[in-house]
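Illustration: Glycosyltransferase.
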Amino acid sequence: MMPSILHQRPLHNAPSDHYPLSSRYFSIPMRQNSIFSRTGLMVMLALMLIFGVFFPSTGIMGGMFSVRKDSVTKWRQYSLAQAVSYVAKNGTVIVCAVSESYLPFLKNWLISIARQKHEHQVLVIAEDYTTLYTVNDKWPGHAVLIPPALESQVAHKFGSQGFFNFTARRPRHLLQILELGYNVMYNDVDMVWLGDPFPYLLGNHDVYFTDDMAIVKPPNHSHDLPPPGKKGRTYICSCMIFMRPTNGAKLVLKKWIEELQAQPWSKTKKTNDQPAFNWALNKTAGQVDLYLLPQAAFPTGGLYFKNNTWMKETEGKHVIVHNNYITGFEKKIKRFRDYGLWLVDGHAHESPLGKL
Ligand SMILES: *[C@@H]1O[C@H](CO)[C@@H](O)[C@H](O)[C@H]1NC(C)=O
Ligand SMILES: *[C@@H]1O[C@H](CO)[C@@H](O)[C@H](O)[C@H]1NC(C)=O
Ligand SMILES: *[C@@H]1O[C@H](CO)[C@@H](O)[C@H](O)[C@H]1NC(C)=O
Ligand SMILES: *[C@@H]1O[C@H](CO)[C@@H](O)[C@H](O)[C@H]1NC(C)=O
Ligand SMILES: *[C@@H]1O[C@H](CO)[C@@H](O)[C@H](O)[C@H]1NC(C)=O
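Result:
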């Protein structure tokens, strides 16, 4: 009885919603049961504490902790192979990799995927244990942690070494999934699905990706890897990648891992994982079947949020929108709100994570 009460989160409209975990285990649903006055509740909690301390194996608390402990042990041992086989549909899994501070974005992204009826295929690669338990408590089996866990506080600042370390693990995770024999769709969680991307994954190519350049292309643009830009390389986004479990796709990932090792993070070059991905594409292009997705359907944030003319011209064609070309959680949330894409506000009930 107690665990289910504690897991309900009636405070979803509270200002703390951006950081849902801060109140996760402490939000007591007073409204739902008028017998629980504040004083009554304190007395009850005190009694439970006494029982928990003096009779740890009996009493309500004993039962509650054992449920929690079982679930902790269970999810700690949950492997990537088990997780992928549990969530994959038609041999395909949709993955993201998130740490605790990204949970509001995870939720927003999931609501948009649920609207396209693909949420059952989603696997959250949790970068810390809080994320692992939080997601699996609400949505059992949909989060996995590939050890070691990262220190979540250092992982979220764009351009920092923590962020680099965090993103540098991505190609390894993706390679493991391909080695298990599945197709994988990777997304950053600051994306929103407005349509179903799967019909756009035409043909039988190894790797599908989107261009992060904000320059407008003709509607019939080529699907080949674009020519290199100013820095001698392309600006393909590492934010959305679809791969088939082919040798070609695995080669790209292995090259990406090599490139990350060859050009590690430094204070002067505050890089992220995207340049390494582009060098990997450049160096494997001759051996791998690559496919550039249409710009109108998969626009960079530099276009979608910044060119109203283009936006109107391509109305109804957008499939996945990326909230990039801006940094900072609050700014991203505000921009999503301004464009009616912060679904967490009015559509939390559509999330498989509930009112997390
Ligand atoms: C799996 O494939 C079938 C047949 O092509 C299709 O009807 C179904 O929607 C697919 N399921 C998912 C989750 O993509
Ligand atoms: C990032 O990884 C490097 C190399 O493994 C390590 O030395 C460094 O401490 C890590 N930094 C952070 C902030 O995680
Ligand atoms: C796109 O269409 C234009 C005009 O219709 C044509 O000139 C051009 O060759 C086409 N480009 C490609 C890549 O098909
Ligand atoms: C790879 O990068 C080099 C250096 O910028 C460039 O000359 C070459 O054309 C690129 N290759 C491909 C396939 O894009
Ligand atoms: C904005 O989009 C329009 C229409 O596609 C295009 O002609 C124009 O060059 C774009 N503006 C910028 C600054 O890229």
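Reading the tokens back as a structure: Residues 218, 220, 222 surround 2-acetamido-2-deoxy-beta-D-glucopyranose (ligand 3) (CB under 6 Å).
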